[in-house]
Each structure stands twice: as C-alpha cells, then as structure tokens.
Amino acid sequence: QITLKESGPTLVKPTQTLTLTCTFSGFSLSTSGVGVGWIRQPPGKALEWLALIYWDDDKRYSPSLESRLTITKDTSKNQVVLTMTNMDPVDTATYYCAHREVSFDYWGQGTLVTVSS
Amino acid sequence: DIVMTQSPDSLAVSLGERATINCKSSQSILYNSNNKNYLAWYQQKPGQPPKLLISWGSTRKSGVPDRFSGSGSGTNFTLTISSLQAEDVAVYHCQQYYNNPKTFGQGTKVEIK
How far apart are CA B55 and CA B41, in angstroms? Predict the structure, then answer.
C-alpha cells in the first residue's frame, strides 16, 4: 500500500525559506521509473505542478519557480524534501506530494502553508 | 509550457444523467512512437487531495467505477460520467504529463441539479 505524508511549518513569514518533507511508504524511490512530485493549490484555485524528482536523481522544476525551488531525496529514509526560498503571501497554498509512475497515482493529504507576517 | 484549458468551469447535472467535461491542450500530447496520449484525469472532493481516475487519456485506474470514461486524442479530450451519482460531486482536473512542466487545467466543478 502506497502512502505519502507531507510535513513542515504551517506558517512562514515573507522572505523566509519553506522546507517541506514528504515521507512515503509502500514503494522505493530507487525503483526504475518511479518519481515523487510536489504540487500546490492556493485556496479555491487550480493545481500547480512545482517539481519532480526521479529514481535516478533527475530533477525537474516549474520554469516559473525554478530559481526558488530545490528538490532532493533521501532514499534510505524514504523522504523527499522541497525547499522554496523567498516566500510571499501569494505562495499561500496546500502543498501536496505525490507518487509518480506515469501520472500522479497516489497523493498525500496535503499541508496548508500560510505566508503572513 | 503546454496550457490545459477545461470547459465548462462548472456544471450542474441531475442524478442519473450524463456529465461531460472537456479539456484542450495548447499542443498535441499524443506521443507518436507509442500512440499514447499523455493525459490524466483527477477527481478532487472538498477537503481531500486529488484522486487519479484515468491515465493515457482513457485507461481507468483499478477500482474506478466504469461510469467514468475518458476519450479524445491529440489536443482534445473528454471525461464523461455516464450516470451521475451523489458521490461524484467534486472538482475534476485534467493534466498533461507529455513534458515538463506537467500542467493542469483550471478544474471543473460538478454539482447536482
């Protein structure tokens, strides 16, 4: 059974760096073809794809946010970490991590991050 | 970036009636070498994460009721709920995974009339 869970701060101040951790079970991020992605959703708005890390450590980022994002994995801990620098109130959203084999077939419950001073 | 545009933004359908959602990509997401459309559909109920319904434009994920079907190719796709049930009230999203960034549509809200 594949499960994912996001963790991190619920409140960050403008200009701070956000660090989110996705802890997963039921699969290995060293298996060929597997990836873990991050997607966010501002309240009442559309889903936005942020980043994806593959089993071979290939990393892909949304071009509009690439300068602010870093995605890493710790295969031994079954974790993927996303950092986003220079947070702004417009970054207030629910942040999801998801398992990718083809499309995103398993999602975490999401974590709401509010950016406010 | 490939832009995904869904229509309508919302629709209200009577119980037992058909619901149809459209998704259009700004460029073809049909990969010619394998003849597959790199298109997924997700269902998102209030307060929940999205749930994968369909991959490859028309392949239902195991366990998804067969009243959900996907069709289309190239740039134009459709999600059909053949007989709307109360539990189908949700927002439906399409997503292309043809290339990066793997963009989503803006979502379509389905309600009961």
Answer: 7
